[in-house]
Description:
TIM Barrel; 7 strands; alpha/beta
Amino acid sequence: MLVAFRQVIGADLEVRLSDELFFCVAHRLPRVLRETGLPPESVQLEITERAVMDDAEFSIGKLQRLKDLGIGFAIDDYGTDYSCLYYLKHMPVDILKIDGCFVSGLGKDPGDEAIVSGTIDLAHALGLRVVAEGVETAEQLAGSGRCTATWPRASTSPKRSPQVKPLTS
């Protein structure tokens, strides 16, 4: 299971941070990594757009310092808050997670299909991996097939898309 998780996420440990905890954890994480000996490359932090956008310039600087240590980042619930393309371009993130509210309309709603397809194209153009959250039907799986991974709503285990080769060996 850990190997499959690493192939999808790119890390051994993904920590989902609330907006309130982001700055606290970001400040203490370098010390915790030193004290525990945990390799920074094995950690991925998942944050929302809102956590970054409340003070974007400061947040991007903090993200970059952690990224320079080797820590990975995922933006969760993409498209539901600010979705500022300028900041997305400058954020040192690795993964963009498309919110399930858009994925749920795949196969039914042309607007959701356009948003998901465009977000996948944008993320790939920026060199990001993409996770579609809340995939429950064959239509949703087909519509998210160009994603690095799909994430079922009822499970916390990511599934690698069959079209994608492993990210690590």
